[in-house]
Amino acid sequence: MERHEEQWEWGYEGYEPAGERLREALCTLGNGYLATRGAAPETDAGEVHYPGTYVAGCYNRLVSEVAGRQVENEDMVNLPNWLPLRFRIPDGPEASPGAPWWTPDQDGLLEYRQVLDLAQGVLNRTLLLEDPRGRRLRVEQCRLVHMGQPHLAALRTTFTAENWTGTLEVESAIDGSVTNAGVARYRALNGRHLTGHTTGAAEPDTVWLRCHTTTSDICVALAARTRLAGTGPGGPAEPVEAVTEPAGPRPARRLTLAVRPGEPVTVDKTVALHTSHDLAISDPLRAALTDLADAPGFPELLGSHRAAWAELWRHADLEVPGKAGHILRVHLFHVLQTLSPHTADLDVGVPARGLHGEAYRGHIFWDELFVLPYLNVHFPETSRALLSYRHRRLPEAVRAAREKGYAGAMYPWQSGSDGREETQTLHLNPRSGRWLPDHSRLQHHVGSAIAYNVWQYCQASGDTDFLHTRGAETLLRIAQFWASRAEYDRGHERYRIRGVVGPDEYHEAYPDSDRPGLDDNAYTNVTAAWVLARALELLGILPEPRRRELCEDLGIGGEDTERWQDVSRRLRVPFHDGVISQFGGYGELAELDWEGYRRKYGDIRRLDRIMEAEDDTVNRYKASKQADALMLGYLFSPAELAGLFRRLGHTLDDELWHRTVDYYLRRTSHGSTLSSLVHGWILARVRRPDAWGYVQEALVSDIADIQGGTTAEGIHLGAMAGTLDLVQRGLTGLETREDALWLDPVPVPELSEFGFTMRYRHHWGVAVRMLAGELCIGLPASAQGPIRVVLPDRTVTVGPGESCRLRLAGN
Ligand code: BGC
């Protein structure tokens, strides 16, 4: 495919303290196991900088006192910082040891450039600084978090004195004094997750640090080797002086370098990190020291790292021209850094904010709904692992359901290490300073998202083993939950699911009601009906012995499946004013003065906070944070959705859907990055010209930080992966069902030409390309059978080694 060179870099010119945390998040490097924010290695955590290093699935619980109450939170732990590498010119006017270590916040910074090289997966920095005596020092730095060997990271720094001769002091350290302090709203909470630090030195040139998390007792060990790189035929250059200071909490190695004008000196820092969660190790410190002893020099590490990235890019090839293509490449880069092939060996879920910051405490929400469909056709092993994370926590979800008196599995709205409900009971409104009850845990629709992902993964990958084992157990348990959660209402002659919160988190209760939750949320009920229908379908296709086994194990009898049939056909879907009601009673809420609020506040994305600070509540108004009923158009193709409504005894025609889209579009504040994505998607699917505005907003949501400061606390992985999927499935209408590839492209004039490769069943590198009015599909040669491609007006068969060009109807 065509390569747009300009799209492979993402850079920042100049130093801007106010934007530094956002850059750190967007310049994070990771490999699915480990990630480190793009902080300057000369800096410590403070107002401007926040170096953070996170390992997927490394959580710890702490109790804090909030608003006079004890609250317990589980957080993804900020691990010891491996980055520190600082320097100073010792014989300046303020002689060493008093001379300050240099940081970008000092005067004398003449040039500053920071560029992510997306193809190679490295972060490059170039700076030129001048001290008060006019001595200029150029610093070039290249950082990697190894994509092939996930426990390794490296930092190469080249110093060049431009106009002076003398010495330069360099200190390379591991900082064990870190805490979780990346999110201002959480600062009142206890953030000391690490304890029991021990440190030491090892030959050659190595310091190490070991500690453990306070309650989950995960042992973490880091070792760092710092040495001069060889510059000439004589082998590695020697520092004038080298001292190891192994004492904690910041074991360091200090080098004094001789510098001469125009002669570069290079310092390489190589780091290994292990935790006691890792497989095939005995002791994390031993593993880190062994990895480090085996680690080659920086050039070789860079070579193998690049090769690993090249492979990833081949598996996830995506070509979209222009600015959109550039941003999509950045999104893809961060998705792959959070969920890489290494994830397939881990017991982790999809962290909503990546491994890029501490927002939402590294928790796992329903956001995987926006992520797995993309991964399914590129890295199915990763999808399978993410679903296995949910399956392993099935007993906990069953326990949660049982405690509330329900059957089946009630998955938590926020999940962490053991799958218990991690949603906080109180949250802070930073506008009013008040701590308020948080009912978002009533978003039981998360269970449907998990079932949907199980089904989609199996459809896309053809992994019947998973479907018949872990997949079936998960899906059937979720079906059991919905069947028991639904109660029959004689008045309505319908089943109802009462007391829930839908995807729109603004509404959590009826106005003036003491009871949290709402009744008959259309999204919840329709997706619950879908889960029940799929559970019945699954029971029908399972091999008989396995079906019997599962029914015995899960206690599913004839009367249960009868109830599933009944509930899946008679769940209540409310309507008002000729549109689908977001929930029962939505039509009776007051209209909001949208213009008035926009005039008064400008940005009204977080209307909930604004209104609470005004002593009002958004519960009283027809105002949504994000797509709720409209999410149905995101999950299901028009034909599938119409079929679901038919099953529920309703007619969903184009007019009703278009009216519903218009209705909620006017009443949504887009307070989540997922909102513009979903609206862009559904508007594109109904061929509306206003789709592009929403797509654009979804594209820039992180790079321009449109939610006002939130990206600095971690990327929005759902929106990032969702925009990739928007091209892949939204614009092409791609579905993988009934053993065929279904395509129904919708033209978006602003994005009419693009291409990607995907993995479908056993075919690797299936190339899909849209050109004006044409769709091309190519299959690489293989021993596999042909695939069936279904378009709205015809079905074609494409065999290995063949490609076909299809003129699209209406063009
Ligand atoms: C959104 C949720 C989402 C969560 C984590 C919230 O702001 O409303 O839908 O799951 O963020 O990304």
Chain-averaged pLDDT: 95
The whole-angstrom Rg is: 28 Å
Q: Using the alpha-carbon principal axes, give the shape.
A: globular
Give the cofactors and ligands. beta-D-glucopyranose
- Roughly what fraction of the amino acids lie in strands? 15-25%
How is the largest sheet built, in terms of strand order? Answer: 1-8-9-10-11-20-15-14-13
Instruction: Give the biggest beta sheet.
Output: 9 strands, antiparallel
Catalogue the unreliable spans. none
Straight-line distance between termini:
24 Å
Number of strands: 35
Treating each run of at least 4 consecutive H or I residues as one helix, how many helices?
20
Q: Portion of residues in helices? A: 25-40%
Structural class: alpha+beta
Task: Describe what this molecule looks like in 3D.
The chain is an alpha+beta fold. It contains 20 helices and 35 strands. A 9-stranded antiparallel β-sheet has the order 1-8-9-10-11-20-15-14-13. Strand 26 (575-576) and strand 27 form a beta hairpin. The model has no long low-confidence stretch (mean pLDDT 95). The structure holds beta-D-glucopyranose. Beta-D-glucopyranose binds next to loops.
